[in-house]
Amino acid sequence: MIDKNKIRESIREKIMKDGIASIAVAVAKGDEILLEEGFGWANREKMIPSNPNIMYSLASISKPITATALMILKERGLIDLDRPVNDYLDDAKLTAWIGKAEDATVRMIANHTSGLAVHCHFFYEDENYPKPSMDETIRRYGNIVSIPGERYQYCNLGYGILDYIISRLSGKSYADFMREEVFLPLDMTRSSINIDKGLRKYQAIRYGTDKKIVPFYDFDHPGGSAVFSSVHDLVRFGMFHLKAHLPNQRAILSDESIDEMQVGTADMGNGNRYGIGWATCQNSYGYRVSWHNGLMGGVNTTLMLVPDEKIVVTVLANSNTNQHEIICREILSAMLPKYAENLAIAEAKKKSNTDQTAMEFIPTSELIGEWNGEIVTYKEHIPITFWFKESGDVVVKIGDQLKTLLNDVVFRDGYLFGRMIGDIKTEDANRHPYHLHITMKLRDKVLNGSITAITHPKDRFGNALSHWIEIIKK
Known about the structure:
The chain is an alpha+beta fold. It has 2 domains: 4-348, DD-peptidase/beta-lactamase superfamily (Beta-lactamase); 369-473, Porin (Beta Barrel), CATH 2.40.160. It is built from 11 helices and 25 strands. It has helices at residues 4-18, 62-75, 106-110, 134-141, 156-170, 174-183, 222-225, 231-240, 255-261, 323-335, 337-352; strands spanning 22-29, 32-43, 48-49, 56-57, 95-96, 122-124, 143-144, 191-193, 217-219, 227-229, 266-269, 272-274, 279-284, 287-296, 299-306, 311-317, 369-376, 381-388, 394-398, 404-405, 407-412, 415-420, 434-443, 446-455, 464-473. The strands form 5 sheets. A 9-stranded antiparallel beta sheet has the order 3-2-1-16-15-14-13-12-11, sandwiched between helices. Strand 11 and strand 12 form a beta hairpin. Helix 1 packs antiparallel against helix 10.
């Protein structure tokens, strides 16, 4: 089925070439686990080698795991995925700057179409910056900036809201519910929310791009990012979602719920769709797949399901690298000849397409001119003006700050994208240097959407904090 020695050799070469701390991999087909192995150092300083039971930070693979808990509540009649998400929140509710908040359903939160903007917010243990309560996070960032159901916009905060709802409805902490209702029934004994002190010795330390240890960090979206697990556990989680239940696993979900999670209800583009916690594709190199990847500081992960072939592949790394995806494709190519053929064709086409010329921004008459409006943060309303020039330059002035140019401008399918220098004057954003990124939709003579403070790239993974912006043509 697979040449284990060839896979091992390939992984070891990649670890040496890229200076990756460690990689763990597991492969299953049907009800048989074909490979579980760790390579490299889970902890370089203590010289602890990786192994199949070492717990890795999963990043966004947390989402299908949290979604599994959500579906448990649905089956128990505690939540209706098609009711407004605000029905399940406390005093702090989502605020609709466009559309109606009551149109943003739990299902839309789960498939990233609720209208929430891009969001990630990290709290490093050496920074002494306290994480706010979930209610306060919702007050600051629970902004609906596009009409619910209008577009797919990946949002970690949505899954933070889901873990909050899971806790509220179950009467347990999110961590306790996941342990008691998901991890233990699926025999995932090396899985937890964040990492309990008793499990620290089993943790793969996260290493940054500078090869140094990344200080431990938390987030305001644990349901989207906070799960730790081993490949031993994660491959079994994947098998459960292919209905290949092992004897020591309890059927915590019906087959109907498992199927529902993998129905792509939101268009991600490029033939991909998003369901309830799973990304899906009907034709990935010739096969139907469901998957999720993860990326954070010192973390790159992938979990791939090929339902019709009953195959699960998971690859976890405690360094930032793209080798996890390459390894996954190599394993699938070894197991599925048609996959290998189609992948080779796609790679050849990619190499032959050498035109990387950036499209020049040429403003249309509907954009040219002066636009005035405001940014709304949790602190204040800030006036902002855009001048769209016939030359293609876009000049921006925020409040009393100096004028600046909007860079990397793209106007596509009615949406304006760009990046600029500026200050939105919030404590959260100003913890680190950042640029402001805009995503606005043209609605007649109005442009509105999100303005996001995205931390400059560096050794630590940064924040993306979004607020409402609207400008009107003069």
